[in-house]
Every structure is written in structure tokens, then in C-alpha cells.
Amino acid sequence: MTISVLDRTEAASLGQLHDEAERVDEELLPCRVKNPELWFAESPADVEFAKALCQECPVRSLCLDGALERREPWGVWGGQLFLQGAVIPRKRPRGRPRKNETAA
Ligand code: SF4
User: When comparing pLDDT for 24 and 44, which is higher?
Assistant: First the structure.
């Protein structure tokens, strides 16, 4: 194992994210000052809003690295939407697909 692997693993820990977040003004962390439910919202519009809010977050890259490492099961982390441990481009609205949607 190399030092860089160790560094990445350490950087990805949730504890390190919390430590880093403690060093910055809480007002700069969108998920601490806005409604935290936005980051786990059902509505695709709310999810996109949370992703946009993350873009200005000072710990965004650390947050994203950690979420990737932990394979977060769901929610917005580091400006990306996770589902079952993977980043997905957008949340699909609930319900059945339209009849006129063509299969790929
Ligand atoms: S990047 Fe992470 S810590 Fe920052 S607002 Fe988004 S979810 Fe919260």
C-alpha cells in the first residue's frame, strides 16, 4: 500500500469530513444552514437545488471523495446524486414511465 492510497482512504473518512467542516464557518456549509431534507428529497427539483447549493461548499471535494469511498446508498453528497453507491445524473420522478418513451 502506498502513501497516496493511505492519504486517500483517510481523506475519505466521514470523521475527516466532519473535522474539516468544523474548521470552516458553519454559514458556508449549505447543508447545515438550509433544510437538510433537500439533500435527501424525493422531488427531482429539490435534488437539483441541493446539488447546486453544494457547488459553493468549501468542503465539496472532500465530501464527494468520502461519499464515493463509502458508496453512499442515497442522497446528495459533494454536489452529486448517489443511488446505491453510485453517482447518477438525475433523479427520476416517481411513477411509471410514459408509454411513448422508447426503450434503448
Ligand atoms: S458538499 Fe457535502 S458538506 Fe457541502 S453542502 Fe454538499 S453535502 Fe453538505
Answer: 44
